[in-house]
Amino acid sequence: MERAESGGASGDVVLDAGRLVSRSREVGDVSFQAFLASREPPRLQWASPGGLELAGAGVAAEVTADGPERFDAVRSAAAAAFADVDANGASGKAPRPRFVGGFAFRDDHAPEGSWSGFPAASFVLPEVQLTRTDDGTWVTVNAYGPDADPEAVERALDDAVESVQALPKMRPVGTPPGVRATRRTTPKDAWTTQVADATERIRAGDLEKVVLACALEVDLDGPVDLPDVLERLRRTYPNCYRFLVQPTEDAGFLGAPPERLVKRDGRRVETEALAGSVGRGGTPEADAELAQSLVDSEKIQHEQRLVVDTICEQLAGFGDVTEGEQRVRKLDNIQHLQTPITTELASDVHVLDIVEALHPTPAVGGLPPAAAAATIRDVETFERGWYAAPIGWFDATGDGEFLVAIRSGVAGGDGATLFAGNGIVRDSDPQEEWDEIQLKYRPLLEEFR
Ligand SMILES: C=C(O[C@H]1C=CC=C(C(=O)O)[C@@H]1O)C(=O)O
Questions:
Q1: SS3 string of 354-408?
Q2: What SS3 state is found at 2?
Q3: Which residues form the Chorismate-utilising enzyme C-terminal domain (predicted)?
Q4: CATH topology assigned to domain 180-448
Q5: Ligand 1 centroid distance, CA of 3 (Å)
Q6: What percent of the chain has pLDDT over 90?
Q7: 423 CB neighbour count, 10 Å cutoff
Q8: Ligand 1 pocket check for 384: Cβ under 6 Å
């Protein structure tokens, strides 16, 4: 395994020169949950709604970075790994090598406490990987380094295929661990003060919007099975992303976010503004009324407009930007306003450059970004870690896709910490914002009960 770390702000991440050997073989359908359950950490999963699904275990190469240059540092270290690729998936439908991982919300994030094992940026080329696309399912074995040997990789692939084929196609989902107790790291009176502080700053003209978040600590009745939780999330939130990043046995970061940060496929870039929330109704009529209240709310339309305009401005430097038609995005527990945004790139820009330009969007940070970041730092009383940050993959051509890690939590053993935030604008009411935050804990909390 090859490891590269940046020494801070310089962003100097260097992987030793070597060859990347990648061999893939198509297999019949297989349970990704069973694959993950059969492997020790480090392991990961990343799935887009109705699209690409990846699961990986072990590490063939790893890049970590911190500081303001972390996006660049990851990209250039990975470019070194991609400089000499021997892959049987380079043509045809078989998967090409991808680095998979993510970033912390802040570039000065310290990997401590529940976030130990989560640097400010961390990407891996998994040693063994499952890939599912519309075209089929593949097992891949990757190796990187000066001694990476195609014959050894072929033999490792034989073994990996054999063990994957022995897995069940469907694995029954176990019973959830059960929830013993929950604790809010931000009690309600503290939240009310935080929202008042934020709206005061907004009225004073310091900023227009800030997304404030809270954490919910959960004591479980027994140890949590993370592949099981992911499988339950797949069933309840089929139109959301799903991810797990689990560097060690101690803790994994996982969730089912509805929000795409960016997808780059050649010159086409897709992103979206997702902001403004309301619950779901118990009847179709009540549900439609709630959806209409989102569309009609001046406050929520203002919040959404700020996000759309900012994303369009951030992308304008890359090419022609098109704002799509606004719609209501309905999830099992909540509905949001969503506006798709696309860009035709004028030049060959790496997906990580676009991630850097967009993160954090005002859907998770605020506006102007620097004032919002300062407000979050002053007001919030917990560590965001990787919450609300970009998680995804990129390949040798600079294509890739990143989600925004909301509706998420860090879990391990018999405990978990869940995260949820809400956009605060001039007229925000602390009680309404509080109620929406509680809704946003539900995806993960319900899967633990
Ligand atoms: C920051 C979160 O949600 C964002 C995405 C959709 C709606 C949001 C809102 O209504 O404020 C937030 O911008 C979260 O779920 O933790």
A1: HHHHHCCCCCCCEECHHHHHHHHHHHCCCCCCCCCCEEEEEECCCCEEEEECCCE
A2: strand
A3: 188-440
A4: Anthranilate synthase (3.60.120)
A5: 35
A6: 87
A7: 27
A8: no
- CATH 3.60.120.10 domain range(s) in the chain: 180-448
- pLDDT tens sequence across 351-385: 999 999 999 999 999 999 999 999 999 999 999 99
Alpha-carbon separation of residue 202 from 327, 368, 428 (angstroms): 27, 11, 10
Inform me whether the pLDDT recorded for 302 exceeds 60.
Answer: yes
Question: Is 209 noted as a catalytic residue in this protein?
Answer: yes
Query: From the CB of 211, is ligand 1 less than 6 Å away?
Result: yes
Residue whose CA lies nearest to ligand 1 atom number 8? 275
Whether residue 436 lies in the annotated active site: no
Q: Tell me which of 62, 69, 259, 272 is the catalytic residue.
A: 259
What is the ipTM metric for this complex? 0.96
Taking residues 49-78, report their average pLDDT.
Answer: 95
Rounded CA-CA distance 141/225 in Å is 25
Mean pLDDT on 333-344? 95
pLDDT band at residue 10, thresholds of 50, 70 and 90?
Answer: very low
Q: Which atom of ligand 1 is nearest to the CA of 387?
A: 16
Task: Classify 115 as helix, strand or coil.
Answer: helix
> pTM, whole model, 2 decimals?
0.95
Q: Whole-angstrom Cα distance, residue 42 to residue 292?
A: 45
Could you give the CA distance from residue 159 to residue 64 in angstroms, rounded to a whole number? 29
Among residues 209, 303, 380, 440, the one annotated as catalytic is 209
| For the CA of 420, the nearest atom of ligand 1 | 16
